[in-house]
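User: Please predict the structure of the protein below. I'd like the answer in structure-token form so I can feed it into my own downstream comparison script.

Assistant: Understood. Taking the following sequence of 79 residues as input:
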Amino acid sequence: MRTFLTPSSESYLLDWGLTLALGGGICAIFGLLCGWIIWRNARNLTERVEERNRTALSDYEKSSDEVSRLKSELSTGEH
């Protein structure tokens, strides 16, 4: 079977193919690592925001109940 490439060109292409495959693998691993870090930080931030929102809603409900109670006391006191 006759090849169209010389041994030096085959070696050159093989070397570059391995280099690009290794480089692609390294970039993929780096991308996965960066993605994982971003995902983890976003999840932590979301949990903190949700906790603050729950606290704020609880405070709002308490103050809303207090305002309603004061309004009812004032309205009954005026009559």
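That's the full token string. The helical segments are 7-78.
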